[in-house]
Design a protein that fits this description.
Jelly Rolls; Arc Repressor Mutant, subunit A; 9 helices; 227 residues; 12 strands; DNA-binding; alpha+beta; 4-stranded antiparallel beta sheet
Amino acid sequence: MQIEVFSDLFPLLSTANPQTLEWLLNVAVEHEYPSGRAVLMEDAWGNAVYFLVSGWVKVRRTNGDDSVTIAILGRGDFFGEMAVLDESPRSTDVIALSPVKLLTVSRERFIQILFKDPQLHHRMLQLMVRRVRQINMRLQMRSSPPAVKLAHTLVSLSDNYGQDLAQGKEIFYIPFKDLAEVTEISIEETTKIMHKLHEKGWIKLDTAKNSIYVVNFKQLENLANKF
């Protein structure tokens, strides 16, 4: 992968200097996982930072045999940084929703890089703060109608990971169970609302291509803001 492509793909690296990017590419290890495979188990947190080159994953909170999806991440995102920094045990794992390609950087190498490049350090703090704000927004929306909450989830996924195509912003066809858990509504509500949005022409569900197209982003965004 070229340095320019590496920088453009990951917002985290947009302000890193060329030497940092070159060093990262040299020390990163590439991994590929099929759909459904565990990418990261709870006992492995803290060993590395993971950069998502392609594909989609879900982060699950686990409690014994039970698990709940708490986040969905797509191309250009990263995870594992908090465990690297605080070294505390985790009760979450990461599962591939689609075929996934990752780059990993070991804990020791990543911390070295943060000390060498203040701009990268600052950029990572900015993105971590943004994640905290997104969590706060979800907490504020807990009493909102299910349709508003689901619209907010779809808008967020489209903003962060959507690919602009003629049909609209394309995101992965995320299983309704995972969408429901992330949005904190029932799977029955999720199924009903998704099909209603499809009928209204705001989204297009394409099971053949495993894609959801956000056709009318503005309408969906307006609905998401009614909390």
